Fold this protein.
Amino acid sequence: MKGFRTAWSRAVQTARLCCGVPDYDTYVRHLREHHPERAVPSYAEFFRERQAARYKGTGGRCC
Amino acid sequence: MRPNATVPAVPASPAGKLLWAAIAIVGAWCLGVVALRRGEPINAIWLVAASIAVFVIGYRFYGRFIEHAVLKLDPSRATPAMRHPDGLDYVPTDKWVVFGHHFAAIAGAGPLVGPVLAAQMGYLPGTLWILVGVVFAGAVQDFMILGLSLRRDGRSLGHMLREELGPAPGVVAMFGVLVLMMIVLAVLALVVVKALTHSPWGTFTVAATIPIAFLMGIYLRWWRPGRILEVSIIGLLLLLGSIWLGRYVAGSATLAPVFDMDAKALAWWLIGYGFVASVLPVWLLLAPRDYLSTFLKIGTIGLLALAIFLAAPMLQMDAVTRFVDGTGPVFQGNLFPFLFITIACGAVSGWHSIIASGTTPKLLANEGQARMVGYGGMLMEAFVAIMALVAAASLHPGVYFAMNSPAALIGTTAEHAAQTISQWGFVVTPDQLTQTARDIGEGSVLSRAGGAPTLAVGMARLLHEIVPGGGMMAFWYHYAILFEALFILTTVDAGTRVGRFMIQEIAGLIHKPLQNTESWTGNLLATAICVGLWGYFLYQGAVDPLGGINTLWPLFGIANQMLAAIALMLATVVVVKLKRERYVWVPGVPAIWLIICTLTAGYEKLVGPISFTAAAQKYAAALAEGKLLAPAKAPAEMQQIVTNNYVDMALTGLFMLLVVAMAAFTLRTMLRAWRINHPTAHEEPYVSIDAVAANAP
């Protein structure tokens, strides 16, 4: 059961990453550890920020 | 350098040796069957099995050799993600997650289209080029650029070129990328135009994706923020619904004419759409479309693999057709060099070097995982190309040529087409052509070049064999068309946006306020220029005498292989700068091969019978005599064709100049580095992975 749950969470993580949304929990953990003075964004805020950021760069996409 | 920086090869156990010997024998046997059996059709499974054996052996031996000898990757060395994770871009990530992300980013329409076009020479030349090309060029490029970027803080290709070769080569290469992008967008949009011409069913379903994306965008923004999976399932169901509804639209006397358009009208619609889509906020149209297309792409590639394994089709196309002599109707030119630029993505694709130096190097948690992601990811893409080739080669050859030859050669009626193609030696009856059209719910299958419709018919046949259901073939055909159109349009949206930012940056050098991406003047102006650039080539393709793909695909191939040559030249320079000259052939030989291919193809497109110059002169001469050549209906259209060919000619010349200039820069830097007796590459200093172990995923 645990194996299945890990596999599922990896699949979700991959799917989100393909859409340019990195792992939210990792980001929150990073903020808490390294930048405790900054406010932690909600998932919705985090998602919107990443969505806008994805289409600004050099467009990682193939022919 | 640490003493144990080079990992000693793991001694193979006797069982391991036996296993690899067995894989080699099975692979050689399958390849033998593919290459040597003549006169009777062979099963696609032979080809698939041979490919898998080649990939596995290439990955285990050549990939490993590059990892340890050429790149000297070191699992004890901290990657950029480990050194300074920021939770957003630099995140140490599980290797399977990185692999999935990387593959989803490199896989696109390219590996599906090229092999289908190349099938006109038979399945054997294309297969061999894909297999040899990916092992010795494509995967080498992806892997080495990834390795270089890993050692340089995840820097981009342009940045690395500036650093290792100097500022001027960096600017030259980036200019090449911008031009390449415009050609890519135009050619891909043309594939959609060719697929939807006079197809109300297809046009309706593709148009329906716009309101579906709006709905998904609003759902994600306001109702359930960030629930990508949920909204993608809803979107998928709506898409399937629109395919089902499309049948009734195509059958309706009032609605069908609304969605029944010729190539010119479709080109204008796409140009307008590209403009609007890149100006609208991303969350409304672009992002939700992107999610749908990403998931649909992965799902459909999986479905295609399943269908090929279960249906195990016979290859009906000849192994080698008479069109290796350069007289083929799908694209002009001899096997050398045109096969090698027609199949770009799938064998070697320059575009990948941008991704391998983009997000991926910022995600890897360990250098030891780079081979799986870089080399392995490209092998997966080559497998997609092999599947596309199988889907095309398992079609009736007569149907294949009817779908891919321009109307100028086979006419516009089933009778005339069947007669012409039968004379070429691929016997087909008019009934077979009309029956195929009826099966897929379309009016005609003639001259639908561009790869997408051929692949869709091939896929529909395979899926129809494994999933029973009367009349389902038309559904599968339109599903396949929709899936390709969806991710091509996503590329067009995103590419237009990126192009717009690039143009705004350049415009900012002239007039500062134009650089502001929030400014509506700058935004609209740059978008209009960007859309105008690719739109010009798209429209040119739509009115082209040979149907567009025939003319523009070589241009795209030359540009894409040019970028691959540039990436491999960078890798060659770095190998020399690291003082590992004995391995200079690893990136050097494929780089030289690609330079030879692009320059030869470019030359043949400049002078000689199949050149843009010859086409321009033919139309100009006819115009001077007051004659009209098909498809032009007025002198102005004749003049347009002449101008278009001169533009293509100039562009080909420009690409050749770029390649020669980059080769000269490379040679100069290499010679300098050769003389210096210590490494001069710009690698970041060594940091032990143990020192940053707290950042591990």
